[in-house]
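job 3f2a | input accepted
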Amino acid sequence: MKKRKILIITIVLAIIGGVVFSFYYLPSKSTPLRKRMGIPGGFFEKFAKERRIIEITSEGFRGDFEKEITINKGGKIYFVNKDKKAHTLVREFGDQTASIELKPISTLFFPFDNSGEFNFYLKEFPEKEIKIIVK
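job 3f2a | predicted structure (135 res):
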């Protein structure tokens, strides 16, 4: 009988302690989830920047665009080589030209931190050029 009383008192005290803790130490539901989870401000914003995906296939570029893409400064373009062979991606910006080989089934991304017009094409398909305008 004595053990049962001690057990009941322990359970009641644990419940009271939990209620007191939740009222005084846990943030209210009106506090944003980010703060309740201890995530610093600006954490999600860096992932929310604009991004576009351009697929590279055996026929050239493929994606939800025509021949021109406009993105905001800070946005990213992902080039995904879905082909079974490597392709050479060429970038032109003003009088500068650079190229890089994308291995089969690989991804490369360009962050656009500067405004301007960039032209991209595949060495194998120079006629299928994409213009990227960064505002």
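job 3f2a | Residues 2-24 form the longest helix (23 residues).
job 3f2a | closed
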